[in-house]
Automatic annotation (TrEMBL):
It comes from Promicromonospora iranensis. This is Plastocyanin. Residues 386-436 form the Ig-like domain. PROSITE patterns: COPPER_BLUE. The keyword Flavoprotein does not apply. Keywords: Copper, Electron transport, Metal-binding, Signal, Transport. Residues 91-160 form the Blue (type 1) copper domain.
Amino acid sequence: MLRRKVSRLLAGAAVGALVALPLAPAVVTAAPAALTAAQSPAQSPALAAVDETAADQVLTFTGDNSVTDYASAPETATAGPATIVFENSAATGNNIGMSHTLTFDTSTPGYNHDVTLDILANPFDANGGRYEAEVDLKPGTYRYFCAIPGHGTMAGELVVTEAPADDTTAPTVTADVAGQQDADGAYIGAATVALTAQDAESGVASVEYSVNGGAYQAYTEPFVLDQPGMYMVETRATDNAGNVSTPEMVHIEVVSADGEDTTAPVVDAEVTGELDSSGAYIASATVTVAAQDAGSGVASVEYALDGGAYAPYTEPVVVDTAGEHTVTYRATDVAGNVSAEGSATFTVVAQAEDTTAPTVTAEITGSQDFDGYYRGSATVQLLAEDTGSGVASVEYALDGEAFTPYTAPITIDTLGEHTVTFRATDNAGNVSEVGSADLVVVEEGPAPDGTPPIASAEVRGEQDAEGAYIGTATISISARDSGSGVALIEYALGDEAFREFTAQIEVTEPGAHALRYRATDNAGNVTRTGTLRFSVAWTETDACPASDERPTVIIGGVDSKVANVDTGNGCTIADLVDETWPWVDNGTFVAHVTEVTTPLVEDGTITKKEQSQMARAAKRSGIGG
């Protein structure tokens, strides 16, 4: 069977305009104002670009080139009227003409089923991929997904809560300034500002502050003003109903703790850019100058390039002329102290010649059967990239024919096996290696599996009175799928990334744990992620409470001369020998001694020579003979 290869749509310089493939008209249905497949977007107010009567609550979903996730989607909403916006366009990141739907689930148990919504959008359709629909949401959870075959993992949940009571009163916010003050009320050395906000109705949602007219920033903890000078601190708060308090202003003066400032500022510079093997900067170098003054504060920073006159430094300096350069710099504080002059010397060289060929990959899309064959037709999209001079052209050939320019996705609807070969050329004339993608097109048969598998997990082990597992909790995960069959089971313990589940999991770390799990079938459908919560009790265990603690390992009365150390769990090396077992013969016993001591050699507990000493002692002991 031929396999399809991972790919992306062509994107690169000088490749040519994309050509849109024929697309079906968008279908949007939304209760109570539902549209049918026979209606065009222009016939329904639900698809208007601007709806002046739209609900105050706007929920926006977007799509891009991905077939696994929506580009963005809301997680929560408030019960009541809402405007659903679904945009799948170049503006939202879809530059390959990929179609997506926004479909609300009306059959899966456990979700709200009162809203019927099925929007098909494409960047090249009549609406440019943007649609709106008016709905009335009820408290609960709605499940949405993309109904395009092969996009099964594009799904999510929208949790709708009861609308809160109308709150029209803004919160209040107060500022408390702390620190040592002089006779004039100025703060000596530093002032600490703490903000407190209150709201008796919907509650405080956020607190923000601005210093000296700067941008507002979120307040999370008291902040310190420790540079001498005058400060204007403006504060505001927002409640959960969206009411914003009137900004309040606090004036604060901070003076130096040491009296008169006689210390010059400290100033330094950093040079950044791409370096070649000799340490020269390729094409350009950027010089960033920073100054600090703990007394009166920095008043100005200046720089000079290659011995020229000093100029005010307001932003990083970019030097793009080839050759050696020197940037000198200095800073002056408010008290008039001038720093010592610093300098940075570096070399800029011209951009290196592009000798690297571009890369080109292919993506095959279409409805597939259980064997991976494409039902009716397949679409091949090419993506070329070049980090040097840029992509000049992309070409392809179908089933051994001559290469032809690639300008749009290739649709193959002839039944049978096919091979698409492709290559790309950059603006420097470098040509990529020829790549290929194999596929099989068959007649349209049964629709592919669109139902996710069912997964479950259980934990076993001895439990204490509080239900915590003593010493070890053993986790097993299972899944079943009546369609295409289970392809993969995954789990993630705590904050770890998901990994494949292949055998029972034993958790011995004491404390509370959360294990997430999911399953994927052979059609790519993924279950909702489940969570198994459990605890492992703290225990103090000694694997060998009646340990053999003689100083050397003695086997059947034969002293091996090897130190009898603890192996880490309360058991000594002699405990591992287990000479009391009814061994069938001496050879089996000697093999056992070698087996149990091999891990001790690997972790450095004993040497290979000491392992051999124990094996000889086991043989001389006659145990099992």
